[in-house]
Amino acid sequence: MISFLIKRSLWMLFTLWIVFTVSFFLMRAVPGGPFAGERKVSPEVERNLRARYDLDAPLHQQYLKNLLRTASGDLGPSFKLADFTVNEILGQGFPVSASLGILALVFACTLGVAAGVASAIYRNSWIDVGMMLAATIGVAVPNFVLASLAVLLFVFIWPLFPAGGWGELQHLILPSICLGAPFAAYIARLTRTGMLDVLGHDYVRTARAKGLSPYQVITRHALPIALMPVVSYLGPATAGILTGSLVLERIFAIPGMGSHFIDAATQRDYTLAMGAVLLYTLLLYVMNTLVDVAYWVIDPRVKLG
Amino acid sequence: MLPDFRTSLPYVALALVIGAVAWAVSFGTLPPADFTFINGTEIESVDPAVVTGSPEGRIIDELFEGLFHNLPAEMSPDFDASREDPQELKPQPAVAKSCQISEDGKTYTFQIRRSARWSNGTPVTAHDFVWSWQRFLHPEVAAQYAYLLGDYVRGASAYNKGTVHTGDRVDVELKTRKWPHQPYPQGTLVTGILREIIKGEPPSVEASDPTAQDQLANWKDEWVYLVEADSSESRGVAGTENPNRLEAYCKSATSTPSFGGETIACHHVLPDFDETVGIRATDDHTLEVTLNHATPYFLQLCAFYPLYPVNQTCVETFGYPAWTKAENIVNNGPFRMEFRRIRDRIRLVKNPQYWNADTVKIQSIDALAVTSETTVLNMYLHGQTDWATTVPAAMIPDLSKRDDWLSDVFLGIYFYRLNVKHPVLSDVRVRQALNLAVNRQELCDNVTRAGERPAWTFCPSGIPGYTAPAGLEYNVSRAKQLLAEAGYPDGRGFPQLELLYNTSESHKTIAEVIQQQWSRNLGIKVTPKNREWGVFLNDVDNLNYHISRLGWIGDYVDPNTFLDLFVTDGANNSTGWSNPEYDRLLEQSRAEPDPGKRFEILRQAEEILLSELPIIPIYFYVSKNLVKPHVRGIHSNLRDIHPLHIIDVDPLAKKAGR
């Protein structure tokens, strides 16, 4: 386990380096620099700006300098939000996106697993049909359409929640439900399939035969194995929730990572875009590693390495 | 041990999940502000010197205050109801108590109000303005708005561009800075007379070489400046033991080879600010500004945010950007910054040190950064904000029927630039034909739909005293005739042109409608081509386009802010168009002291622009504000700028209105 984690960390550093390198050169290959604006500055002035942000050196020197600085944990000053460093911006944006993501993921798992188990147990009943219909719709409808509907229903027709903004718990609920809903739907389907598969196995029948209550059979014996596909889905689901929040953060005016990332890319804020890309990479890598560890915890047959 | 570890992990995970959720849903409490408005995109900075946008302006206008303040004319002591619109903005004394303008209109003497205070309690003095404006003009600050002083104040442009000649008095800034890249002057200054510049051989570069500009700049950095430093010790100058000796200074570490000796490293060799630039504090409370020409709108510029003062001690103590943080910033406006959450909100609270604090009625303001226009409207309708500064275009026909809809023309124009270096567009007849065949009325009625006015001239109407020339018209038969004369009867043989716009739904629709109008009226084919903003600017910059869109908002109420765009090699000309007569007229207008005659000269210049047509004016912008009825004191005006320290919110009506 320890050696596995060390190995993973080394691979992660390598991945981050590759991502850094590719992003660095791609960003600078796109035409239009960070200082282009509708009111143009004179060439002398632009030269001074470039010097301030170390853009005047040859590309390979910039690359090395940036790489070393990034490696030391300093992502540099933001080009477009000039009053802040990238570390400060991500430091403010990340907790916001994390709150949103955690709530969405917990909501998706709780609702998804509960619905999936219920449909599997009451197979072919109206509960099953109703839930799976809802799940199919949930998977098919993109979250921004869901968000528009939710705003119409719960902001205007039935004013339960504010239309957008950030700062109180009530700002968090609508967006995290909209963000989590498609994943809840998918998890419900995965759980149902997994449960149906497991419930037919011999060892479940054995467990029943030795007199365990249906509740114990499901939670102790059936669910852990039935959840394997769900656990492996958590990696991609995290990725989906992270990227999905780009759109929802816009719709609900949430000051998270997604808003920073989009604006950084379109405004050529090299340092902020780089910081966001690296943070996303790190997150996905960590989540995937956690999923692998979770596999090992749930299924004793799995070997880490 | 391992099995225990494994069996305990699910519980650890569960605890972690519960902890995470508890953390995610924990929020501090935030008391609502008296007044909340939506400010659009997140502001780039609160430093008045470095920004250009209107969201930035809305914040900086409340944090800082200039010599004068643009306020509704009705608040002015010399308000004349028969001539002035009570709601139009007029520069009125603010930090300056009064201002004397010399006979020839070139010298402005400001008396600084003795009650003006920084938020830390220290007085605002004339020296603060000298320092702030020097910083604003300093080449390293790279202020995009530097021309607001550079074009008008004596010597300011040379200081901003760092132009020095032999025999000039110069300031040499030595490399003794605490932070090398701080964008303001702070190192040791050596003042003296520039005796010689040793330039060496200029590099031989092809104009087409993309690095040509860099090579030239590197060459300039190697110049050696021989300066005879002043002997005076009073300026705290280093290295002056030997009064009449020449010192050799060089910006680059490697000085030009043609100079053999040792050089002293320096950041800049700039014109001596105190001697050559017409900005001077004669005492703590008197600021004297000398202009190149009589500039009738100079007070308007003094009331515009780039010219606001910043606190020297604060900037020098914390450095940039730390001085802009809420806990560090020292400002002199009606409000202070309580906190700033990136892309969420800026909370402003009343500044008790403000000299006119008694008249400020609201205690706190929230400026929300919301970019999606639909969200802005949702939040306004839901009562989360008192003022929405923009709304989705598609909703305007419905919104314009509301009582809280506040919209009027303001000083801005949407237009297309034509690349006159293009072989086809270089023919003025083609440019005229393209202009005559655009039905602007149809666009305003069916596409933009917010009550925009079709633009038949370039300067928006409403500038007091200025009568625009006759202007263009929609005349298809004349357009066809001109196109035939240019050699393309019924559009035959006309090459396919591209219409470049930056990615946006509304630009796209307008481009498509104009494309259809041209195809229908002239039989020519134009392809709309969208580019993401950065690429778009790059293409326009390099004249790598045929037709491109632009919006231009006036910086002050005067035709010059528009006409100045198209002088030869103007920084924002970007059409390749040049007309010596036009340049001459604009130059002449600057020297003309009589306002009536000056407008007449500018009118002639606009006439030239409208006959030569390097542009296609399309429509004049209108402001799009929604303001809740419980807010008093926000009215439409030409600049679409709304001072917030004069507004008032009726709390009872606000409660009832929610």
Commentary on this structure:
- The complex is a heterodimer of chains A (305) and B (658).
- Chain A has 12 helices and no strands.
- By secondary structure, chain A is an all-alpha fold.
- Chain A has a single domain, classed as MetI-like fold.
- The longest helix of chain A is centred in the middle third of the chain and has 36 residues.
- The model of chain A has no long low-confidence stretch (mean pLDDT 88).
- Chain B has 658 residues and is an alpha+beta fold.
- Chain B contains 20 helices and 26 strands.
- In chain B, the strands form 6 sheets. Chain B has a 7-stranded mixed β-sheet, with helices on both faces. Chain B has a 6-stranded mixed β-sheet with strand order 19-23-18-22-20-21.
- In chain B, strand 20, helix 15 and strand 21 form a beta-alpha-beta unit.
- Chains A and B meet through helix 2, helix 4, helix 6, helix 11 and helix 12 of A and helix 1, helix 6, helix 10, helix 16 and strand 22 of B.
